[in-house]
Amino acid sequence: MRRALLAITGLAAGTTALVVLKGSPEAGQVAQELPATRPPVVPSGAAPGRSAAPTPTSAASSGATATPKPRAAATRTPGSRTSTSARPTSAPRTTTTAAPPKSTTRKVTGSVVSNEYGNVQVQITLSGTRIVDVVALELPQETAQSDRRSEEVDGRYSGTAGQVVRKQGADLDTVSGATATSTSYRQSLQAALDRAR
């Protein structure tokens, strides 16, 4: 009878300790740090060398009600990891800031081409090898008529949506009524393309 009473008391004390350990924040860590071969805890008052857990025969013979065994806490054996609350250790992370990529856009200016109405000079903007913009730096503006022709040529060829960007080259349609300015524009453009290579 005394043996059964000591066994039940020991089991109750063990269950209480497990509940307290599971409820505390460090429970998972404490359970992992316990070695797997640690000897069982003997409750105070029990005789050394005697088993604290009841055997099925002693519990049944004494008439005491058998209590269910609590689940064992996760233990960590050397060389294994548990997935319950293990915190993986890793080297400290170092953050490096990557330098921003260098801009690949560049501007190339063509030569000045003269005709009977004035000078024409074109500048192209390239992103890598692609033409993304064209600007006429100089166009004939001597008279109202040459100024009008220059505006027509500039409107058709220049800008980000002009013929030069769409065709990606100097093979442009001649602007009707502004043949000399169109030809000079194409020549300056071709010179800029040659310099860009």
Question: How would you portray this structure in words?
Answer:
By secondary structure, the chain is α+β, with helices and mostly antiparallel strands. It is built from six helices and four strands; from the N terminus they run H-H-H-E-E-E-E-H-H-H. Strands 1, 2, 3 and 4 form a four-stranded antiparallel beta sheet that branches. The longest helix has 22 residues, at 2-23. The chain is rod-shaped, with a radius of gyration of 45 Å.
Question: How is this fold's topology laid out?
Answer:
Layout (H helix, E strand, L loop, with lengths): L1 H22 L3 H7 L22 H7 L42 E5 L3 E3 L2 E10 L2 E9 L5 H14 L5 H5 L11 H18 L1
Helix pairs in contact: 1-2
**Main sheet specs:** 4 strands, antiparallel
Structural class: alpha+beta
- Tell me roughly what share of residues is in helical segments: 25-40%
Rounded average pLDDT: 75
> Radius of gyration, Cα only, in angstroms?
45 Å
Termini separation comes to 102 Å
The helix tally amounts to 6
